[in-house]
Amino acid sequence: MKICMILEGCYPYVTGGVSSWAQQYIQAMPQHEFVLWTIGANAADKGKFKYTLPENVVQVHEVFLDDALRLRAEREEPPVFTKEQSAQLAELLKCGKPDWNMIFELYNSKTLRPVEFLMSKAFLNILEQLCYDEYPYVPFSDMFHMLRSMLLPVLYLISGEVPDADCYHSICTGYGGLLGALGSFKNNKPFIVTEHGIYTREREEELIRAKWVSPTFKPYWTRFFYMLSELAYSRAVCVSCLFENARKTQISMGCPAEKTHVIANGIHYARFCDIPQKVPDGIIDIGAVVRLAPIKDIKTMLYAFHELQGFVPNVRLHIMGGTDDEEYAVECHTLIKRLGIKNVIFTGVVNVIEYFVKLDFTILTSISEGQPLSVLESFAAGRPCVTTDVGCCRALLDGEADDTLGTAGFCVPPMNKQSLALAMERMCRLSPDERAAMGEIGRERVRQHYMHQTMLKNYLNLYKEAQEKWRE
Predict the structure, then answer these.
(1) Where residue 326 sits, what CATH number does that domain have?
(2) Spatial distance between the Cα atoms of 470 and 472, rounded to a whole number of angstroms
(3) Could you tell me if 439 and 319 lie in one domain?
(4) Domain match, 90 and 205 both
(5) What is the pTM of this model?
(6) What gap in Å lies between CA 304 and CA 365, rounded to an integer?
(7) pLDDT-above-70 percentage for the chain
(8) What pLDDT digit, counting tens, does each position of 1-52 carry?
């Protein structure tokens, strides 16, 4: 089977998290061919892969959102729309429930170029009515530019070439879900969505903090992402996520319950389970397997570590991962200098299997997560964790309802440096044997519930189910 895996803002351009999952996933399925349909932000990243692609990746189809900014109208005469086309384009503009078949046909058949509608009188008429109805006190020019910036990437994406495949598998809703729905429509093949985090909720959280969008328009942008998630959920044959609460969230957002599946992440347990505990040397070494990105909240980690050093002076922090955001990385290094924090080591990308022998325990300070591989790997290596209470981290630490193993770490509210510092202090005050016992609980939890082969079996069954449902 040829599987088109649709990835947004991750593999193969950045390391860690979903990217690591995708690399291992493809490598573990040599019986299938994979086409990567990748969505990036900047065309300057074209071909700059952080991974050596597995041999069963037969094609990489790259699209970049900033290419949409270079588009120009190509026809001299303004486009003419039927009454029904105008109605559906208006529905798209309102972030409602457009007839996506009509939108796909209009753009992917090359009947309409991406920029032409946005430069048409029809667009201005719809926009004018929208302003009267919903934004009467907002400058027309602000609404004009906001909607153009919102819709241009969508129209650009659905106008592009669609790779051929037997199944389209998007690893998010959003733009990835949009392309998955397009591929299914264009080539009459099944479409599957897998969410590692709930994409729309993550975009909501980012919008709350975002400075690039006016507070007036934040609800509209939220509505836009909900529109894309509704498209993905309605067009997908099967929708999977990593844990039960995420499935409930998908259902609450409109995904039909009968489509939903929980497929937990799995790791290569055997690679980690024999790593010995660190030899005590008078220093407690804390590891964070994390890329430098705002959503990972490295700044709170640094503030908390600075406070921790006031309680426990013999500590070191190892931050293991690449840099997603150079500006954010600079801010983190500046913060270290300003606070005078000592014993912080930025290792860059390392072989974590080899590095674990240096660590006593690990931390994760993300603002948003699904089911983090770094926590599972830490457990498999027998290291307990301190995590923020995001995604299913609390369930990983304490177990699900039927899990009686015990606790494998401490959970704290996100973005709370004092709680994080106290939890790290608590972990540091444990004896090496107590930390090892806690890590052993995590190791057994992984062995029972989060094995890589179990995950693969479940996804292979999902492909089989999707093919069968599509033929019905």
Answers:
(1) 3.40.50.2000
(2) 6
(3) yes
(4) no
(5) 0.91
(6) 10
(7) 99
(8) 999 999 999 999 988 889 999 999 999 999 999 999 999 999 999 999 999 9
